[in-house]
Design brief:
It is found in: Cytoplasm. By secondary structure, the chain is an alpha/beta fold. Among the domains are: 96 residues, Nucleic acid-binding proteins (OB fold (Dihydrolipoamide Acetyltransferase, E2P)); 147 residues, 3-Layer(aba) Sandwich (Rossmann fold); 25 residues; 39 residues, no CATH class. 47% of the residues lie in helices and 19% in strands. The strands form three sheets. A five-stranded mixed β-barrel has the order 1-2-3-5-4. A hairpin with a 5-residue loop joins β1 and β2.
Amino acid sequence: MQNSTSLPYDDSGAPRGAGRAISVSELNRMAREALESRIPLLWVSGEISNLTRAPSGHLYFTLKDSQAQVRCTMWRNRSQLLPFRPENGMRVDARALVTLYEARGDFQLNVEALRQTGQGDLFEAFLRLKEKLATEGLFDPAAKRALPHYPRRLGVVTSPAAAAWKDVLATLQRRAPHLEVVLYPAPVQGADAGARLADAVRSADARAAADGIDLLLVVRGGGSIEDLWAFNDESLARAIRACPVPVVSGVGHETDFTIADFAADVRAATPTGAAELASAGYHAARARLGEIGRSLSAGMDRRVHGLAQRLDRAALRLVHPRERLGLARERSERLGVRLHAAMSRRLERLRASQQVLRLRLVARRPDLQREMERCVRAGRRLAQAGEQIVQRRAERLATIAAHLQHLAPQAVLARGYSITRDADGRILRAAGDATIGGEVSVELAIGRLRAIVNSTEA
C-alpha cells in the first residue's frame, strides 16, 4: 500500500529540511495518519477491562488478551446501537480502526461495532467461585453482623504503601481523630496477594482480643479485574467469614465487586466509604453534640436573660426594711379589725341558727299518749283483718277440696264408670284396642273384674 503521508525524511533516511524540528502535535498527527492509512478496518478479539461509561454516552475500555492490551473508544452513536450491555470480563470481537489519540499520544482503537464471544476466563472463574461459596451459605444475609456503633479500635488489612491506607487515615482524621487504628499489612496485588491477605485477616482474628479491635476493614483502591483479583481469593473469603469481629470490605470503586465484598458483613463502595462507615457513629455523635451544645448555649442565654429581668423587677420593688415593717404592722392591724368583725358576725349567725333549731325541735316533739292510743287502735284493726283473711282462705280451701273430690277417679268410678286394661296393663279407650280371646281387667269403684273378650263392637 502506497503511503500518502509526507514524512520528514528523504529516500536515504536523512532528515528532509536539515535543522527543521517539528512539534509534538505534528508528530502525533503524522503518526495517526500513517496508522489510519496503513491498517484497514478490522476485527480484534479480546476481553473487556477497565470499562468506563461517560455521561456523554461514550464508552472507554481496554481490550486485552493474556499478553497485551490496547485502549479502545466507542462513541455514543455507535454504543447506543449495541444489542447487549458491555461489562468488564466480557470477551468480544471489536470492529475497529487503528488510530492515535493526538492529545496524549495514546495508541488506541476507535470501535465501530462489538459482538459478544463469551465471558473472559477471569470473570468466569469469578462467577464459578461466587456460585460455589453462595451454595455453601457463605454469603447468607442472616449471618451478616451489625457494625459497632462506637468502635474502640479499628483494624485495617491493606498495603501500607497503597493509596487506600492513606484515604482511610485521612477520612478517620477528619471524622474521628481519636479512633485508634491497627494496620495488618499485606500486598493488595500480585501472584500470592490473595493468600497473604487471608493470612493478614487470620492474624487480625488471632490478635483481635489482644489488640482490642472490634471492627476490621479490608480495603484497596480501584483497578481492573486483574488488579483486584487477589480479593477474589477463596481463602480470603473464608477468613473474612471466620473473623470474630465484623468486617467491612472497601475494594475498588462503585462499580467494582469482588468475592470479598460478598463475604464481608458490609460492603463499602470505596476505601473512603469503608472508613466513613466505621466512623459513622462518632461522626453523627459529633454533629449531635454540636447541636446539643448550641441548644444548651441558647438555653443558658435565655435563662440568664430571664434571671436578669427578674432581678431588675425585684430591684424596682425593693424598699427599706423599716418601711416594710411599718406597712406590715398597718396591714396586721387592718387584718385584726376585719377578723374581729368577721368573728362577731359569725357568732351572731350561729346564735340565731341555734334559736331556730330549738323552736323547730319544740314544734316537732311527739305526743306519746296520743301515739299509744293510735297504736292500740291499729292493733285491734290488724287482729280483725287477720281473722277475716284466715276465714276467707279456709272457705276457699273447702271449695277447692270439694271440686277435687268431685273430679277424683274414685268419685267417677262411684258414679258407675269403670277402667278397662289389657293384659299388659294399658288402658283401653276403644273396643278395637282389645284382642278377641284376650284377657282384660275391669276396675270398678269397689274391686276388679277379669274377663275374656268374646267379641267387640265399634
